[in-house]
Amino acid sequence: MNGHGTNGEGSAKKGGFMQLVKAVAWSFLGVRKRADLEADAAQLHPAALIAAGIIGAVLFIVVLLLIVHAVVG
Predict the structure, then answer these.
(1) Nearest to 56 by CA among 14, 28, 37, 32
(2) DSSP conformation class of 44
(3) In 1-73, alpha helices (H)
(4) CA 51 to chain centre
(5) Cys-Cys link to 23, which of 7, 35, 40, 61 (CB 3.0-4.6 A)?
(6) Which pLDDT band, with edges at 50, 70 and 90, does 72 fall under?
(7) Residue pair 46/29 in contact by the 8 Å Cβ criterion
(8) What is the rounded distance in angstroms from the CA atom of residue 62 to the CA atom of residue 69?
């Protein structure tokens, strides 16, 4: 009620979103440093990681389908 954490939350969410995207992208490639993996596990929410992974997988499939459609068609 007294504004506790309001200034830090906005910047943390923006940095957290980019950290989430970076973590999912590197995980798709299978290249991660152990320190980065541990930092992500401590800072990112599991539900957000799962959602980002599903979205990433769907985007990957759509891109593959578009490439196949362009090559075949």
Answers:
(1) 28
(2) S
(3) 6-29, 34-43, 46-72
(4) 8
(5) 40
(6) very high
(7) no
(8) 10
**How much is the pLDDT for 15?**
55
* Domain layout of the chain by residue ranges: 6-72
The Cα–Cα gap between 57 and 55 comes to 5
Query: pLDDT tens digits for 15-28?
Result: 588 888 888 888 88
How many Å apart are CA 1 and CA 15, to the nearest integer? 24
Q: How confident is the model at residue 13 (pLDDT cuts 50, 70, 90)?
A: very low
Residue 12 CA to residue 48 CA, distance in Å, equals: 14
Token pair, residue 9, equals: 């939350």
Beta carbons of 26 and 36 less than 8 angstroms apart: yes
- Are the beta carbons of 64 and 36 closer than 8 angstroms? no
DSSP structural state of residue 50: H
